[in-house]
Amino acid sequence: MHHYILVPKNTSMNNKRTKIWIGSAFLFALPLLFYRLPIIEIIGEDTSFFIKEEQFVLGWIHSIEKEEWFEHYERYHEKIILTETRFKTFGAGTPYQGIETTTKDGFITMELQMEHEELNLTISKSVQTTLFFDDRQIPLYDYFDQYESVIIKSSKIPIWTYIRGEFL
């Protein structure tokens, strides 16, 4: 009686291919570990959220004039650029260095190019602090406590944080 041992052909070749495939996959995945994606981060005292969009409008009701105020921002590298502001009456805090100023539908609109490292806000239901996008709006006063200090800034986050992050 003969006993046979089955040995796969080209075992060393299969091992070599497997090692090459694993090595190639690792080399491909390695840059992903260091790749960071740009986002806008909204940081509260106890929680933070991410925004994928490159631009947003920050709106609120002015506490003194009781009129709507809208500021259009764009993320540009590590900065947030105020490109336009719309309001109904001049008062404290009104920008004065506008590129162009127009009036339409009761609003004064100023084109601007003001760079900010970050925006510092105090959230309030009474002024209805809200973020507006093309397809939706996010009332920040529903996500943060009354009078909570919030920072909005441009950030870059690792891809795994982007995948599992909390986006608004």
Automatic annotation (TrEMBL):
Keywords: Membrane, Transmembrane, Transmembrane helix. It holds the Pfam family DUF1850. The chain crosses the membrane at residues 20-37. InterPro entries: DUF1850. This is DUF1850 domain-containing protein. It comes from Sutcliffiella rhizosphaerae. The lineage of its organism: Bacteria, Bacillati, Bacillota, Bacilli, Bacillales.
